[in-house]
Write a structure and sequence with these properties.
about 300 residues; globular
Length: about 300
């Protein structure tokens, strides 16, 4: 069964980072090289005649741009490309700083307590819960999880592609914030996986021991839950319609529950992964969203209530 486990979060984020790099190079300017044809006859300067309106030539020449002021297209594209990449890196670093400081903000302390107490309770009950669930049909649960994850990721990819049209700025923001959120999630998920090194339910002595692995494909926290709840939360924030939020959250819950039932993770893994995914998405979205769009930017609305945007 271990060979059938998909490392979707890692591969998906790697693909997105590659896409960002390719997209960042798309704004380079076009270079046209005009070369002289050696077969053309030589220019006979003796047969040239000056025009009658020679006096108007200086004025026309003044209207032309200075050759020294024209930037070389190839050279100018390099600083622009490097500047775009540099801004993206600085923005991710700023996100990471805010994400690591967010748990210490006073208004987040109640959520910290909820996550810590809940994770501790599930850690204590993990083995009891695992022993009381069915171990049959784990292939069906894995397939269900993959279908739900593919549907959610495909929908977000479609929104991102739809946003390439200049008039669809809201969809473009949704796609870019989804990518930014997934990168932020990956940068937090990776060290936690390396530090925890927890065994899955069907590994070792079946107790879910920590510090047994030194890789990213381990049990704690639940990667599928972490990434899918991050994606679903950004989508629900950008399009706070009841049906859109119900579909996105249902997909995230389906992935989380089916991965747990497939014995890929313990209950505590999925609880913490879901909480972290939501927290990362909410912080990334509200820090970078555009309040002019019909979203819940800079404020919160319960998922079942339609979004009300004040008239401009």
């Amino acid at each position: 069964m271990s060979q059938e486990r998909l490392r979707i979060p890692i591969l998906f984020v790697t693909l997105l980072i590659t896409t960002i790099s390719a997209f960042g190079q798309g704004g380079s300017t076009l270079n046209l090289a005009i070369q002289a044809d050696p077969t053309l006859p030589a220019l006979d300067t003796a047969r040239l005649t000056l025009p009658d309106n020679l006096g108007a030539l200086p004025e026309a020449a003044e209207a032309l741009p200075d050759a020294e002021a024209l930037p070389d297209s190839e050279d100018s594209s390099q600083p622009e490309r490097h500047g775009r990449v540099g801004r993206g890196v600085r923005r991710i670093m700023h996100d990471q700083k805010n994400l690591y400081l967010a748990p210490f903000e006073p208004h987040n302390l109640k959520w910290d307590a909820l996550v810590l107490i809940g994770t501790g309770a599930f850690l204590a009950a993990d083995r009891h819960i695992e022993n009381n669930i069915s171990h049959a049909r784990f292939h069906a649960y894995q397939t269900t999880s993959n279908i739900a994850l593919a549907g959610l990721a495909g929908s977000l990819a479609g929104v991102w592609l739809y946003g390439f049209k200049p008039e669809h700025q809201h969809a473009r923001e949704t796609g870019l914030l989804e990518i930014e959120t997934l990168i932020n999630t990956f940068l937090i998920y990776t060290p936690m996986q390396l530090i925890a090194g927890r065994q899955r339910a069907d590994e070792g002595n079946g107790h879910g021991d920590f510090l047994k692995h030194h890789s990213l494909n381990t049990s704690f926290p639940g990667g599928h839950a972490m990434f899918t709840w991050a994606m679903a939360s950004v989508l629900a924030d950008e399009y706070p319609k009841p049906w859109a939020r119900a579909l996105s959250y249902s997909a995230a819950f389906t992935v989380t529950f089916s991965r747990f039932m497939a014995r890929d993770h313990w209950a505590s893994d999925m609880f913490l992964g879901s909480a972290l995914g939501i927290a990362i998405a909410e912080n990334t979205f509200h820090a970078n969203c555009n309040p002019e769009f019909e979203s819940q930017c800079k404020h919160h609305q319960w998922w079942w209530k339609p979004m009300k945007v004040p008239a401009q």
